[in-house]
Amino acid sequence: MFQKQPHILVVDDDSSLCEILINMLDQQGYRAEAVHEGRTAIEQVRSSEPDVVLIDLRLPDMSGLDLLKQLMESEHNLQAVMISGMGTIHNAVQATKIGAFDFLEKPLDTDRVLLTIKNALDRRRLKKEMSDLVESMREHYQMVGTSPEMMRIHELIRKAAETHIKVLIQGENGTGKELVARAIHNNSRRVGRPFVAVNCAAIPETLIESELFGHKKGSFTGAIADKPGRFQVADGGTIFLDEVGDMSLMTQAKVLRTLEDNTIEMVGGSEPIPVDVRVIAATNKDLQVEMEEGRFREDLFFRLNVLNIRVPPLRDRVQDIPLIVEHFISQFCNEHGVRLKKISSRAMGRLAAYSWPGNVRELKNFVEKMVILLESTEIEPGEVVTLLESHTREKVVTPRTLKLKEARDAFERDFIRSVILTANNNITRAAEMLDIPRTYLHKKIKNLGVEV
Q: Domain 315-394 has what CATH class?
């Protein structure tokens, strides 16, 4: 595979030194060039985007530190190495604070210069890979939707990401609570650091303390070595405590202590271990009820609930369904190596009319099934109906003590509400989609008690 030749720019007013460095770098397979003034260097960086810049501390038109500062402000992944015949500790410290990768003193040692450039290139590559990974994660975990409910959530995510405050995310299963947590992390200063998700409901009560805080060797049967807990793994980053309402009161007390003094104590240990972790929690339970019934600590609730984000169920933002479906179609076609499929407006209407009790998670699973099973490049309503019938048959039906009329009214109420939301609360448009007169739709809304 073709690999880009690393580009090195030398900025020094000593023409002889520049010539020596360029010849040396050319021999090592680098593409090297030199300029003699700071302003010329700025133009050259903008036009040719070098990987590494060697900057003399003293230039004819500005100081090397001033040039470094200007370059660092505009080129975040540029690796700069300062060189000087009058190097001082103060200058080296200043250069490092501004963003220099290293500081070399004249006369330059060839081996040291080459090693420094190699290390600078490695650092640039790693930063680029990290940036690409973060961007990929953002795309994979992005929250899709332009409804008023989603715009409100995006604004809360932005505010949360700008600070270190604790966040409590509430919502039904499948609404995307973890996506909200990841969005906060990925847009905060902790991006690039660990994001550790812990499903508190999935860990047995006998193991959750060890999972969260770690354990020392010999602290219990089977503890054959020291093991760090999730809080330690998340150090410097974010820990996401999903289903926090399922924690026992004993575990809640220990989490509260960690939130209060930013330390953890391993099972079997006696020394507090400091941790720098942002805590985001989520639950599908009503914690007010849990507190009233003595199953959740009030002091922990107030510690976690500094900023509250409620994620609406999909039935409350039906207008987002077309965007979500298109997003998942593109994602799964790409993941499974399938030619990109289109979906007709009538087929999309069928999806929007379904209630999706499992919320976005259920819709995501259905779209993946649709991408894999349907061979046509354009998805039509008949295909969607067939798959939906199969999909609903697969779900467990819970018997209800409803009379036939009550069940029919409940279905009509949910169906009409879904269509109205799809039509952005435009009753005329909703009546057209339902193929009924507008006056009849108004009558149905009134008789069934449909919320609009």
A: mainly alpha
